[in-house]
Hints:
Layout: H1 2-19, E1 26-31, H2 64-67, E2 71-74, E3 77-88, E4 95-105, E5 111-119, E6 125-127, E7 133-136, E8 140-143, E9 149-153, E10 165-168, E11 174-178, E12 183-187, E13 193-197, E14 205-206, E15 211-213, E16 227-233, E17 236-243, E18 250-251, E19 256-259, E20 266-269, E21 274-277, E22 283-289, E23 295-305, E24 308-318, E25 324-328, E26 339-342, E27 348-352, E28 357-361
Amino acid sequence: MRKFIRGLALLAAAGSCLAQKLPEATRIWSVGPLTKSEPVMGVSFGSGGPTFSGPHVDSQTRSIFSATRSVVFAGDRIVVASQIGMRKVEGAQVMAEVYQLLSLDAKTGEVKDTREFLAFGSLPLFATDDGHVIAAGRMVLRLTSDLKDDGSFDYQASGHKFGRVQNDSPGGSMLGNATSPGYELLDTHTLKAKPLTATPLADTSVSDNGVITDNVHWIRDYPKDVGFVTYYDATGDHLLYHGKCGGRPQFLTNELILEPGCKSPLIIDTHGNLVRTIALKDAFSYAGVSQNGKRFALQVASFSGMHSIKQEKFVIYSVDTGQPITEVAPDELADEQSWTAFSPDGSMFVVGSPLKLTLYRLP
């Protein structure tokens, strides 16, 4: 009973802390729009030829996936991937999305280098722990901070009929490749693969040592539960969480996992222990973690309907305490969630969209 009362007191303290005015973040610069609004090479879906043009705020802010994989820190640069149009692929009867990668000076926001890529679908970006960028499109490319090639991984040449990289480890040293069936980890320095499991996995997050999924349901053992977090590492599969709520769990460090599907998000460890609960009253979603594992962000927003955001802010939390540190709000409202990324040490936070990107220094 004493433990239960103490837990309630901790939750109340966390809630009162959110109600208090937090220290303000310092705006360093704002830039935008990041791409020109004149017509670019592409094709409209109506009549009139190649007139697809300009960045639109909803082009990459309609999902958490794009919002957390469109901008990264890379050494003294910030790299963004902006979808600017569509283009027919030579020798094929298909259309591909055209992405413009831009490398910005992290001190000033000035665009230093640009490069175009074609992708069938999204072009997620990931920051490595050595100041490079991973662009995971038709193949996995390792790029320098000024967008030059520095290695590649071809899904089919690696011996797989299929591959998909959608997640990286919090520290930036590993990528997860769903080979369907099977799963492997890719080293972000060498792009060498290490097989992990032959089990088909729909991954939600990866660490240096394994992968987690919410897509494996232990209904036979827990028929009344709807949410499950399963962890796969070299020793096999491990059920870490089961309960009445659940979402897309995310690694905060190699040992700590955020379960954001409950009304108050949970932090659990890779042994299934509950570490802490984050008290929240509003709708929220995951918005990133710093590579040093010290800070993570949640989007707190209100909506008038699907893809109709009314208010949006990002609350920065301490991983160690679960307490809020500061909050920032984008200048332009997203369609669902704005782009976000931490600097590796968690001291800076970039937020925005192709229309306007703002860098903040955090207290």
